[in-house]
């Protein structure tokens, strides 16, 4: 996959990728990133940072997703309400049993068709299919699986079985508050997809490993990001 080209930009690639990384990795506004860079002696306007995220963010996210290993076979699905331009919409999410964010999809309804859209989008990748679906108790999930002839795959709807997917809404809520709500469904979809791709790389389960192993995982994550951004270490 072709790396992003930084030719013609007044800032060096290392500065551009750092600004994009800061915005996508943390719950920061463009002005927050502007101030953090200014503290390091890098003077760049928040509007330039916004254009950089919109230009390079999708390319980097695609390269990050392409480099991810095959997800765990147990897929968790969940939905949550989000406010977009004053309208209540639904954000459908798919994560695997290890917390890897698989898909995020903004939909206007919370019904069987929306559940099918998320499932079909997840199944588009050749050779990848779940061993089991884990969902909440909403009837739309069972109806979607039956209509898609996926009813033979194990479908778990037990109480607390879907905590993994429900926990994935925490970073979404955090960023939603920082942005004071989303403005358009399309921009919300792009924003959440870019954040998910970055989170997958940098979310390291530090409570399950030693400090030394955690540092190694973190260094590997930085290397993966720089490679996707087309910037030498």
From TrEMBL:
Residues 157-176 are annotated as: Disordered. This is Putative transposase. It comes from Methylobacterium nodulans (strain LMG 21967 / CNCM I-2342 / ORS 2060). Residues 74-201 form the DDE domain. InterPro entries: DDE_dom, IS_Transposase, Transpos_IS6. Residues 159-170 have a biased composition (Polar residues). One of its GO terms (molecular function) is DNA binding. The keyword Nuclease does not apply. The lineage of its organism: Bacteria, Pseudomonadati, Pseudomonadota, Alphaproteobacteria, Hyphomicrobiales. GO terms for biological process: DNA recombination; transposition.
């Amino acid at each position: 996959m072709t790396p992003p080209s930084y030719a013609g930009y007044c800032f060096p690639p290392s500065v551009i990728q750092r600004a994009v990384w800061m915005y996508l990795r943390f719950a920061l506004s463009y002005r927050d990133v502007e101030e953090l860079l200014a503290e390091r002696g890098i003077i760049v306007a928040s509007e330039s940072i916004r254009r950089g995220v919109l230009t390079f963010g999708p390319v980097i996210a695609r390269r990050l997703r392409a480099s991810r290993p095959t997800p765990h076979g147990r897929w968790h699905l969940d939905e949550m309400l989000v406010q977009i331009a004053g309208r209540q919409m639904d954000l459908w999410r798919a994560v695997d049993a290890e917390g890897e964010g698989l898909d995020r999809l903004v939909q206007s309804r919370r019904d069987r068709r929306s559940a099918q859209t998320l499932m079909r989008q997840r199944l588009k990748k050749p050779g990848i299919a779940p061993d089991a679906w884990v969902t909440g108790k909403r009837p739309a999930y069972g109806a979607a699986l039956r209509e898609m002839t996926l009813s033979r795959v194990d479908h778990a709807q037990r109480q607390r079985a879907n905590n993994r997917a429900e926990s994935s809404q925490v970073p979404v809520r955090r960023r939603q508050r920082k942005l004071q709500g989303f403005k358009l469904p399309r921009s919300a979809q792009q924003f959440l997809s870019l954040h998910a791709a970055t989170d997958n790389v940098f979310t390291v389960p530090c409570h399950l490993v030693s400090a030394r192993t955690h540092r190694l995982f973190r260094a590997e994550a930085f290397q993966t990001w720089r490679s996707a951004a087309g910037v030498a270490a």
